[in-house]
Design a protein that fits this description.
Elements lengths: L13 E4 L3 H13 L3 E7 L6 H5 L2 E6 L10 H11 L3 E3 L9 H9 L3 E2 L4 H8 L1 H10 L7 E3 H4 L3 H8 L3 E5 L9 E3 L5 H16 L4 E5 L5 E9 L5 E13 L2 E7 L6 H17 L4 E9 L5 E7 L6 H8 L3 H10 L15 E8 L1 E2 L5 E2 L2 E2 L2 E3 L6 E5 L6 E2 L6 E9 L2 H14 L1 E3 L5 H9 L1 H4 L7 H5 L6 H24 L18
Parallel strand pairs: 1-2, 1-4, 2-3, 4-5
Antiparallel strand pairs: 6-9, 7-8, 7-9, 10-11, 10-13, 11-12, 12-15, 13-14, 15-22, 16-17, 18-21, 19-23, 20-22
Helix pairs in contact: 4-5, 13-14
Amino acid sequence: MPATKKPAIKELRKVLIANRGEIAIRIMRTLHAMGIKTVAVYSEADRNALHVELADEAYLLGPAPARESYLRIDKILEAAKASGAQAIHPGFGFLAENPEFAQAVVDAGLVFIGPTAQAIRDMGNKLNSRALALRHKIPVIPAADEREAGADFAERVKALGLPVLIKAAAGGGGKGMRVVAHLKDLKQSLEMSKRESLNAFSDDHVFVEKYLKDPRHIEIQVLGDLHGHVMHLNERECSIQRRHQKIIEETPSPFMTDALRAEMGEAAVRLAKAVGYTSAGTVEFMVDADRKFYLLEMNTRLQVEHPVTEMTLGLDLVYWQVRIAEGHPLPRRPGPLRARGHAIECRIYAEDPAADFIPCAGRLAFLREPSGPWIRNDCGVRSGSEVTTHYDPMISKLVAWGETREASVARMKEALNDYIILGLRTNREYLLDVLDLPAFREGRLHTGFLKQHLPDWQPRQAKLEAALLAAALYRGRRQAQATGSAPAQRNPWQTVGDWGR
């Protein structure tokens, strides 16, 4: 329920950021602009990291593995106490959606820049959030829960209609998620999903949803203050995903209408109010071809893709997170917020898209970031930085704005072409090829888009080399046919001719 009394205003002077990399740096930039001192924390692997250098002070948490450093609540609270920080911002990932961490921060007499522990707990379990949504008349995808159904579970799954999607009740990010097309595969798939969920979230509770064919993933950004006011900040289209994780996001959605935006925005606000939500959060929906939407989940934190909302609305979500945590009310605006233009974000990862997006680790030999009007790059590394296997391999969030969708996509392509990253494989060329697809340019997006349009993607150089090799072998066969004998064994590149120069 909303707060019933006005909170006291507490101006923050020093904030610890319980995170690393680009999100820690992005939060620092806003805090510094607000005149707030920043405290970084780091693992031994991040001793020379950029976020450590840019902070006003920094504290070592422990060894490289996250469970021994960035997930150590006690160490983070010790650093906050030693530094004299008044508040902690969790960023995203790590402990950002951990209700025990949020409560521990408050119990230590500090301000948690985020929602309450109870709101995180209420929304953190997908089955709980489904039940809450149903009570507030928000559509959800038909589902079956094994623990609830017992011996009738298989029949309930069959009644949903195959295929179905197994999901982890306690988390997201694609962990524990599997599509089941045949009932005979259900048992084995459940066991695999439970193991994965247990490893990722320390909870093996999974459930099954009706699998929607080619839905869009559209989310609504919300802000709630300590005075009981909640507002939505329009939508983001997040349908371009690999392994159930987003890599391109944009706003406005090319699929959206004013009526649908109003309906989805009102549903998101209703859900947020139901849990007394404060700070920035995102209500995520699946939307079918008929523009019927269904609740997916609520992320009780700042999202990776938040910059596109900031670029089109001209606001700073971290600034408002801090203001809300200090006790300031949100501005009361007449009518919905009006966006200007279009923004698109590409996540730049150290990974190999040609090898099922396997993460790549190593040293960045050289990095030149793109720049120019209406280009933003939230980056966590520099030339010489190490990308390790211990953490997410995202290098930066590259954002482009334009008056129209076509203009922002064109600007993004220019920025990607200007982005030079040497020493590690990245998904830069892959992103360029996605943006060039006619279906993308026409806005015909869905969560299976990449599998449909780029199932066997190879980098351009590899494609060129394959074409040259094929040409060389073809020329060799033609020569053999002409002479009636097999060609001599030699390097096929020698037959390429001027193509290879």
